[in-house]
Design goal:
mainly beta; 0% helix; disordered C terminus
């Protein structure tokens, strides 16, 4: 477990339900359900997560299926697979990452239809 992680669900863990937390949580096992936090969710390389996620930041190295709202940013590493819908203002992907679904990157603080001013 990393120094900033407050909880770790290991690779032999199977969990169903609702998880809410502060800080950072790393999932390496199987999780089905809802995850809610303003913190950071780290889905490890061997993890399989299915459900709804609403977090501040998502780091995806494993497999996720469902709906994601990441308020600050989403990082999908080369081993990451996202099947579903993603809503995030910032998206970083490594070569080899897989996204099957819809990605929405509208900034929630900017009214829909309003484009940012172009720099001159």
């Amino acid at each position: 477990m990393g120094k900033d992680e407050i909880a770790y669900l290991g690779s032999d863990t199977v969990y169903e339900g609702k998880l809410s937390f502060k800080g950072t949580v790393r999932v390496e096992g199987k999780f089905t359900g809802d995850i809610v936090s303003d913190g950071t969710l780290n889905i490890g390389k061997d993890a399989h997560v299915r459900g709804t996620i609403a977090v501040g930041e998502l780091l995806l190295s494993g497999h996720f299926n469902g709906e994601i709202l990441a308020k600050r940013r989403t990082v999908i590493y080369s081993s990451g697979v996202l099947e579903g819908n993603l809503h995030t203002p910032t998206l970083l992907t490594e070569e080899g990452a897989v996204i099957e679904g819809q990605v929405n990157m509208r900034n929630p603080s900017r009214p829909e239809g309003q484009r940012p001013a172009l720099e001159e």
